[in-house]
From TrEMBL:
Record-level Gene Ontology MF annotations: deacetylase activity; hydrolase activity, acting on carbon-nitrogen (but not peptide) bonds; metal ion binding
Residues flagged as site, Transition state stabilizer: 152
Origin species: Kosakonia oryzendophytica
Keywords associated with the record: Metal-binding, Zinc
Any Pfam family the entry gives: Amidohydro_1
Organism lineage: Bacteria, Pseudomonadati, Pseudomonadota, Gammaproteobacteria, Enterobacterales
Name of the protein this chain belongs to: Dihydroorotase
Amidohydrolase-related domain residues: 47-341
């Protein structure tokens, strides 16, 4: 007896399958006839993917500047797992951990290498905030919560310290089992070339399509040589849309050059969720459909690529034995006007619309899904 049976789910390759769930795990896929406590027919109409993973959010409710509730950026919008990107450092990580145990959304953290985290914009302007032993203790206290490190490398954050915080971050990374390191880029100094040259396989550049001086393209619209070298070494690109870090012109040009993101993420928090231009992960994903990625490419960026980049086991794939985290969504044909971080707009015709999410085997309808009454979980 299965706990839940999703019948006739449409996958992004347009095949249709049944998905059975038991004890919070995916129990079977294919043509399934066994009995289930609950059975939901999706009629081959509604898409199902592995649960969406947002690789860059801010959801520490006690953050003075970039706060939100995990479930507001997560399960309410069809996102089953969120990775908070450096809202907290060693000083606040315990509080963050405790608060997020009540969330339905699975929450992980990239620990800010600054022990004070994002209590202000300039957390790396004082090198005394980079305390390697405090990082090590925090990682040891929360081995299943801290999945990587975060260093924000832009002028307003590092002050007069140039590239030094990143050199410290790389040393700290080595001391902590080579955890993935996410590096924020934006205004210089330090220059992006200096940053890119320090990064190694598995490191993640976030805000990869920003329009600031540290954009990945040269003034002539070619990929910077330093970034090309970094990508060849296995450095990964993450979108991290945010309030000020994504523009259509850079994204379109990069994608035309074949420079695709490994992960599509939102950099969402309450302000850019409510007022835009982020709104939701689905909204950011839809922008990538509008600039030319296919639906399977977009979904891969929020499922298996995200799980791989942050080494999340048992997530990101529809496979037997994996966590029963799933997202049910429609691809709606409707006119929609998207806005980037510099108020440029883009007319599009499709919107990815989450209807429900299943997290550890339990179903949660989104507002949209409840309103449509297409099915009930
Ligand atoms: Zn961020």
């Amino acid at each position: 007896m299965f706990d839940l049976l999703l019948r006739r789910a449409r996958l992004v390759d347009d095949t249709v399958t049944d998905i059975a769930i038991s004890a919070g795990k995916i129990a079977a896929l294919g043509d399934i006839s066994g009995p289930a406590v609950k059975s939901v027919d999706l009629h081959g109409e509604h898409y199902v993917s592995a649960g969406w993973i947002d690789s860059h959010v801010h959801c520490y409710p006690n953050s003075p500047i970039y706060h939100d509730q995990p479930d507001s950026v997560g399960i309410a919008t069809g996102v089953t797992t969120v990775i908070d990107a450096g809202s907290t450092g060693a000083d606040d990580i315990d509080d963050f951990y405790t608060l997020t145990r009540q969330a339905t959304t699975e929450v992980y953290a990239l620990l800010n290498i600054s022990r004070v985290g994002l209590i202000a914009q300039n957390e790396l302007a004082n090198l005394n905030n980079i305390d390697a032993s405090a990082v090590r203790d925090a990682v040891q206290r929360h081995p299943d919560f801290i999945v990587g490190l975060k260093a924000r490398m832009s002028s307003s954050v590092v002050g007069d310290n140039g590239i030094t915080p990143l050199e410290r971050a790389k040393a700290i990374q080595k001391e902590n089992g080579d955890l993935p390191l996410m590096v924020h880029i934006g205004n210089n100094p330090p220059n992006l070339d200096e940053i890119a040259d320090l990064l190694t396989s598995g490191d993640i550049i976030t805000h990869c399509y920003n329009g600031k001086p540290n954009r990945i393209l040269t003034p002539g619209g070619e990929l910077r040589a330093s970034v090309a070298r970094a990508l060849r070494r296995g450095v990964r690109l993450d979108v991290g849309h945010g309030s000020a870090s994504f523009i259509f012109t850079v994204a379109k040009r990069a994608i035309a050059l074949g420079i695709l993101p490994q992960t599509i993420s939102s950099d969402i928090y309450c302000r850019n969720r409510i007022d835009g231009p982020v709104r939701s992960l689905a909204n950011v994903m839809s922008k990538f459909l509008a600039i030319g990625l296919s639906l399977p490419q977009v979904i891969a960026c929020v499922t298996d690529h995200a799980a791989e980049g942050l080494r999340l086991k048992q997530k990101g794939r529809l496979a037997v034995g994996y966590d029963a985290d799933l997202t049910i969504f429609d691809l709606k044909r409707q006119p929609v006007l998207f806005t980037d971080a510099e108020h440029e707009s883009l007319q599009a015709e499709q919107l990815i619309t989450p209807l429900a999410a299943i997290r550890a085997g339990h179903g949660y309808m989104t507002e949209q899904g409840s309103a449509e009454h297409a099915f009930d979980l």
